[in-house]
Sequence to fold (293 residues):
Amino acid sequence: MDRTQALKAIKNGAIAATVSGVFTLGIVIFALSSSAQGDLATWNDPANFIDVVLVFLCAFGIYRKSRTAAVVLLIYFIVSKIMIALSMGQVRGLLVSLIFLYFFARAVQGTFTFHKLERAENPAYKPPPRWYWFVGIPFGVIMFSLVGMGLLTMTGTLPSTEVLPGSRLPSHQVETLLSERIIDEGEQVEYFYSAGLFSILEDGNLLTDQRVISYFKNEQGELEIYELYLPEISDVILIEEGSYLNDSIYQLHGQTEDAWFNIVLSTEMGGDLEFIQRLKRLIYEQQQGAGMD
Fold:
C-alpha cells in the first residue's frame, strides 16, 4: 500500500464509520420513540447513545489519521456484532457487516502505512504526544473490561443483566436450578432474571409454567426460596417502577394474608413487562381452565 492508497483507505474508513454511526443513531431513535420490542429491543436503550458517540469519535479520529481510533473501531465493531448475535440468538446482516469490516480493516492498514511513510519521508514528523498514552491506555482498559463483562453475561458465564426468556437461558444455569431444587424436572422456565453479580445462586426470580419463584442467599449463605403456584396468585402489584438504572419491584399476593413476596425484574429491553404480561396471561389461562372444569 502506497501513500495514495493509504489516504484513500483512511477516507473510506472515515466515511464508513460515519454511515455506521448515522444508521445506528436512526435505529436507536426509532426504537426508543416506538418502545420497540422483539428484534429491535436491543436498541431500545438510551445507553446505545454511548455507542453512537464512540463511533462518531472514531470516525473523526480516522479522518485525522489516528491509528488508535482505527484499531478501536475495528475491535469494537467485531465485538459488538458478536454481542448482538449472542443476544438475539442468531446472526443477521452478515453481508453488510462484512462490507463495513472490510473498510474498517483497510482504515487500520491505511493509518499505520501513512504514519510509517511519514516517519520515513517527513523530517518534521512528530510522534503522538505522551499524554495520548496516559489517557488512551486507561480508557482502553476500561472499555475492553466492560466489553469483556458484556460477553461473559451474554455467554452465561456471569448472570445476564436482562430478563431472559426460558429459550435463551443457558443449559448450565438450568442444571443449577435443578440441582439446587429451585425447579423440578419437567418444569418449563418461561422467564428468568438474576440480580446476582457472579452467580445466579446469589439471587433469582423466575416464572415457570407452574409457579413464580423468588430465591436468595441469606446472611448464613443458605438458600431461601419463596413460591406461589399460578392458581394461588390473587394479585400482582407494581411496588416500584424501574428505570435504566434500577430494577422494577412487583409484589405477588396469594389467597391468604401471609402468602406474598416481592420479585425484582430488570427493565432492560422491556424484560420486566414481558415477564409480568406472560405471568398474567398464564394466570388467566389457569382460571379459564379451572372454570371449564
In short: The mean pLDDT is 82.
